[in-house]
Write a structure and sequence with these properties.
The chain has 237 residues and is mainly alpha-helical. Helices cover 63% and strands 10% of the residues.
């Protein structure tokens, strides 16, 4: 209970029903190893929180960008509620410290594992919703979403760079780009991948990410920048 009170302090949000917060922090690995200490893991709350965040972020974007088309709104929402973004929200709130994990999961770095942190943030959102409603969920999410949105827009992280680079490469060379993992680093629970985007044998961009998919997107974004530079140079000739 002391840990839960500390988490409430970190969140700036006192729960009426403390059992909801306890459940939100309970990973299934803890329940498997300690069947008598918890009645339920956080997966049902994760489901509910996912739905609440989708709605709240969608409404926020709809009101903030009244002229934006549906397709870009959808891309922005996906970028704000994707696994990596929500896991970063959880890290900023230090949720990993308060998770109830099985011993094996904890020892293997589960407190900083991106999927576990994403699920915990969604479960926390579900617990807050049941405790005090959607406005309460938004009071926790909004301070995290505002700066994340700025970063996403500044770096065009909501754009499917792989699709755009594929369209460009096929138009220019009639070749579909391929992506090669050229390096990885870090422990299993926090591994970083380095990927190159190639058209034929030429490397057009390289990027890093916490998953192969995110590294591919980063490589494609850098490849698009190189493609833009190449087109500008051709226009100047």
């Amino acid at each position: 209970m002391d840990d839960l009170q500390e988490l409430e302090t970190c969140l700036g949000f006192p729960f009426k029903d403390k059992s909801l917060l306890s459940r939100a922090m309970t990973h299934r690995s803890f329940l498997n190893e300690n069947p008598g200490q918890a009645l339920e893991d956080n997966e049902r709350l994760e489901f509910l929180g996912d739905a609440a965040l989708d709605f709240l972020v969608g409404a926020y974007l709809y009101n903030r960008f009244p002229e934006m088309q549906e397709g870009e709104l959808t891309s922005l929402r996906a970028a704000l509620v994707r696994t990596e973004t929500l896991a970063d929200f959880a890290r900023s709130l230090e949720i990993g410290r308060f998770l109830r994990l099985g011993a094996g999961e904890a020892e293997s770095g589960g407190r900083d594992r991106t999927p576990i942190l994403c699920a915990a943030f969604e479960a926390l959102s579900g617990a807050v919703y049941l405790d005090q409603g959607l406005d309460a969920v938004w009071s926790i999410a909004e301070p995290l979403i505002d700066p994340a949105l700025i970063t996403i827009l500044d770096d065009s992280l909501h754009i499917d760079a792989k699709s755009e680079f594929q369209v460009w490469a096929q138009a220019q060379f009639n070749i579909t780009p391929r992506y090669a993992v050229v390096g990885s680093s870090g422990p299993d629970h926090a591994k970083m991948f380095t990927v190159q985007a190639l058209v034929g044998d030429r490397v057009w961009g390289e990027g890093d990410g916490s998953s192969k998919q995110s590294a591919q997107q980063a490589a494609a974004r850098n490849a698009l920048r190189q493609a833009e530079i190449a087109e500008m140079m051709n226009d100047e000739r």
